[in-house]
């Protein structure tokens, strides 16, 4: 198996590379300077050299607010790049693993989203990812993995909250956005297991349970107070997403409720659990303290 990881400098790509090294699996990872995925000739040339059999397509325009302001760039990075990979994969019958998002959904459900639920993105980031999903559909050897509220010790909501807790006496956090925060190293084994299996189609992979951003920040504060020497005793203040957007007009609309249900993936992989969001948060602190 010849594995090609796009977006090689990103947090998900780096976690995949670490796991593949531990498994002794050969791979190549590229960033934009090594292969610009929006340039068809560059993609074709690299594919002819490496002849991949599995493409882990992590490269993406992921900044939700900036996507709203730079729509053409988001469309190029998310849709055009994916379309180019789909075309060059065909001669090698390579499996394409595309990473998508819970932001495809509009948040009107009251139970976790299933793979069969109809997408209705509220912002340009989600729309560009949905268009990328749709460009993959005609290619039979594709796997779409939708992830939710990703974070690591490099970036993400939990790290941002932790950094603010170290320096600020007061934090204001949105209270009515609910999701399934997922610590990347906790989900990578399942990602690779799906990618290297015969599975195709669309799967959700996320932690289990659901939590608001405010209560996730509170849980982060509680763990930080027990495990870190905080120089402050921070206070958390709740705000609605509507009030936050009024105060920050450049903020794109997020779904109020976007937890992902991962039963299909668990059944396919024959595993009982992908870990609760609390277990993911505890794993984050273990990694952070290393």
From TrEMBL:
Pathway: Carbohydrate biosynthesis; dTDP-L-rhamnose biosynthesis
Pfam families in the record: RmlD_sub_bind
Gene Ontology MF, one: dTDP-4-dehydrorhamnose reductase activity
E.C. designation(s): 1.1.1.133
Catalytic activity, reaction form: dTDP-beta-L-rhamnose + NADP(+) = dTDP-4-dehydro-beta-L-rhamnose + NADPH + H(+)
EC category name: oxidoreductase
GO terms classed as biological process: dTDP-rhamnose biosynthetic process
GO (cellular component) term, any one: cytosol
Keywords: NADP, Oxidoreductase
Superkingdom assignment: Bacteria
Ranges where the RmlD-like substrate binding domain occurs: 1-288
Family to which the UniProt record says this protein belongs: Belongs to the dTDP-4-dehydrorhamnose reductase family.
Role this protein plays: Catalyzes the reduction of dTDP-6-deoxy-L-lyxo-4-hexulose to yield dTDP-L-rhamnose.
Name of the molecule in the record: dTDP-4-dehydrorhamnose reductase
Organism, as annotated: Entomospira culicis
Originating gene: rfbD
